Amino acid sequence: MIHLAAQYLAAAGISFLDEKDDDSHTNLGFDTKNGFLETWPLNEKGGKLALDYQLFSLHWINKQTIETTLNLDGKTHDEIIKWITEITKNLSPNKSYKYNLHYELPYEKITDGFIFSKPQVNELNKMLSYRTIAQHVLEDVVDKMKMKTTFRIWPHHFDTGGYESFNSDNNISVGCGMAIPDNMINDFYLYTAGYKGHDGIDISKFEPLTIGNWMNEGFKGAVLNMKDVDETKAKNFFNESIEKYSVL
Question: Nearest 5°: phi and psi at 195?
Answer without folding.
Answer: -135, 145
